[in-house]
TrEMBL record:
Hydroxymethylglutaryl-coenzyme A synthase C-terminal domain mapped to chain residues: 249-325
Protein name as catalogued: Hydroxymethylglutaryl-CoA synthase
InterPro entries: HMG_CoA_synt_C_dom (IPR013746), HMG_CoA_synth_N (IPR013528), HMG_CoA_synthase_prok (IPR011554), Thiolase-like (IPR016039)
Domain Hydroxymethylglutaryl-coenzyme A synthase N-terminal: 3-163
Entry EC no(s): 2.3.3.10
UniProtKB keywords: Acyltransferase, Transferase
UniProt keyword annotation of Acyltransferase present: yes
GO molecular function, one term: hydroxymethylglutaryl-CoA synthase activity
Organism the protein comes from: Lacticaseibacillus mingshuiensis
Pfam families, per database record: HMG_CoA_synt_C, HMG_CoA_synt_N
Amino acid sequence: MTIGIDQLGLYTPPFFIDLRELATARGVEPDKYTIGIGQDQQAVAPSSQDVVTMGAAAAKEALAGQDLSKLGLLILATESGVDASKAGALYIHRLLGLPASMRVFELKEACYGGTAGLMMARDYVAAHPGKTALVIASDIARYGLATGGEVTQGAGAVAMVVAEAPRILAVNDDSALHADDIQDFWRPMYTDQALARGKYSTEQYIAFFDEVWATYREKTGRTLADHAAMLFHLPYTKMGLKALKTVLAEATPAAQERLLAQYQASIQYSRRIGNIYTGSLYLGLVSLLENSETLAAGDRLGLFSYGSGAVGEFFSATLQPQFRQAVPLHGHAPLLAQRKQLAIATYEQLFADSWPNDPSDYQSEPAWFAGPFVMSGVTGQERQYRAND
Ligand code: COA
């Protein structure tokens, strides 16, 4: 049975900053951000946008035209969740009016969560013929103003409907895995800003990639030449390139050129949105499908997922005959083109205006309401979600 991604949705808030302007404001040479780190713009989420509202928006797009009576599983993968107990997936379930007879929950393993959800959904569909699953990867990456990680912030969500006989991508059962308890990146419960050992985390990402790539190659007998494109988790776009370059010499010059060109197609959206943690690998997938004109049905893609802490997984996926109808070229270009650019001072004000980490009530600023769903405020320690009408 072929199982995989039948439909995709992508959402990012309609506000961004230009990273050359941020560099100037921070006294940094702009080329460091755009060339050294590989980011041009960064999505900015006002406080009315969180993993629930962004995830619901992406899921609304992914579910368009789907038979909801087949849906048996909803997974929200996130590492910037809004409650330590209740699954944000339940708010999304209500906002989208999904059937009551479903498994609905949230899962976490840093940026690996989206892949954990995708693999769990594939197994669920295999065990329950005729059923479908919805996987949402939604995150706001926050490191703090004027920190080293600020340039790698971002916000957005990717949603995937997983089904038998998928229209876009078959997810193959060929994973190579590596897990180890390391302390490269984490976020204590008392703060919404992540802590990272930047250099160490970069080294570990590459070490985990090299490990799972070697295992995958040995297990499947495949080489780089068997892959039309290699996709990477993208905390910033230079990161995947560093990993790819550690193995590129295994390929012929022509294959190297092809893989580098496809890599460029895969990072177009991340360069403008930034890190969306659990969704970053799948943002790269959407970007590749919408910005590469040389892909064809039957092409095999290689995907490297990494979640700090840490888990690495490499697997392949095969493009299906209807992929181009399901993912039109440049389909999400308008979502990015129609965003509003913010001055750095405005971004700093929005960054400071976040919901309270204490029992007080809070009202999100209606002037910044955007997208199909909003978190209008917090009343009596309960978050208030509604359609943005
Ligand atoms: N022009 C072009 N490139 C420049 C430059 C300039 N003027 N100035 C610096 N650079 C390059 C550096 O040479 C370096 O390139 P390299 O990585 O290829 O060596 C790159 O820009 C970054 O410079 P560096 O000094 O290493 O930056 P930093 O110490 O400020 O670190 C981050 C920045 C973003 C890499 C770091 O904060 C980080 O890793 N944060 C997040 C960690 C993370 O996301 N972890 C999760 C992994 S999944």
